[in-house]
UniProtKB/TrEMBL annotation, chain A:
It comes from Desulfatitalea alkaliphila. InterPro entries: Beta-grasp_dom_sf, Mopterin_synth/thiamin_S_b, Thi_S, ThiS/MoaD-like. This is Sulfur carrier protein ThiS. Transmembrane segments: none annotated. CDD domains: Ubl_ThiS. It comes from the Bacteria.
Automatic annotation (TrEMBL), chain B:
Pathway: Cofactor biosynthesis; thiamine diphosphate biosynthesis. The keyword Transferase applies. The gene is thiG. This is Thiazole synthase. Pfam families: ThiG (PF05690). Keywords: Cytoplasm, Schiff base, Thiamine biosynthesis, Transferase. The active site is at residue 98. It is found in: Cytoplasm. GO terms for molecular function: thiazole synthase activity.
Amino acid sequence: MQITINGQLERIAQETLEEMVRRKGLAPEHLVLEHNREVVPRERWAQVALQEGDVVELLRFVGGG
Amino acid sequence: MDDDVLTIGGHGFTSRLFTGTGKFADDARIPRMLASSGSQMITVALRRIDAEAGPGNVLDHIPPGVTLLPNTSGARTAEEAVRIARIARAAGCGDFIKIEVITDTKYLMPDNWETLKATGILAEEGFVVLPYVLPDLTLAKRLEDAGAAAVMPLGAPIGSNRGLETASLIALLIENCRVPVVVDAGIGRPSHAAAAMEMGADAVLVNTAIATAEDPVAMGRAFALAVTAGRMAFLARMAEESREARASSPLTGFLGAED
C-alpha cells in the first residue's frame, strides 16, 4: 500500500506506527508523530495500523527563536 | 524588584528576559545560558525529522520550571500556524504559543493579517497566544480583541542585531495596549534590551544575540542585567531631557566671591 510520510509517497507493507518508526531507525523519545492530522501518543503507536492513503508527519522540536 | 511580576496567561514571570534556542553552536550551552540569564521562558521550533541539523531533541536541554514557548516558524498561513500550535500542545509543550507567520524570506517580515487570523482561532481554543508582529497600533488592538495574551513587535528584522529601529511605533503599543508588550527580534546588544525596558516594554525576547555570542552563557547574564536595569529605570521614572545644560552643582558661593 501507499502512504505519505513527511510529504513523500512511500510504498510499505502492512505495519503499525510503532513498526514504521522502528523500521526507520528513529529514536521514539525524540519524535512527535502526527497521523492523519492527529498527534498519536507514543503508547498508542503499537495499536494503530497504517492504512492505504494515510498521511504521517514525523516531527521533532528543534532550536528556534 | 522581587514583587515586580509579569503575568502572561496566568503564569507569573520575575525575569523579563525571554530567550530562544536557535543558533547555539552547542545545545548543551542552553541550560547554562538559562541558569546565567535567569530566563523563565524559552522558545522552540517544530520541524520534520531530518530536515535540519543533527540528532537529539532541544527539549532535553531545557530544565523543568522554564516555560516552553513553542513557535510556529515555518508557517506561511494562519492554517499552518494553527496546525503547528495544536501539534505542539498535543506533544506536551503546554498552552503557550508564539505565532510566527512569514512568507517574506528576505526580511522575514511577519504577515500581520494571517497572524491575526491564527490568533483568533488559537485564543478561542484556549492557547496563550503571543503573536510576533510588525508594531502597528491598529493591529495590536485587533490582536487584543482576538484574545492575544501579549503582543510581540519586532525591533528590527530577525537576527539582524540592529536594535530598536521601530522604537517610535513600539512606544505607541506600550502606551495603548492592555496586554503586555514584548519586544522580539532585532535586539543585538544588552543596551538595546535596556532601552526597550526603559521605554516601558514589559519584556524582551532575545535569541541570536545570546546564542551567537562567543560566550552565550556570559552574554545571557549581560542581557539579564541590562533588562533588570532598564526595568528598574522605567519604574523609577527617568528625569527629563533638556537641550541646555542644567548645572548639577550650585553656581553660587564660590571661594573668594563677593556677597
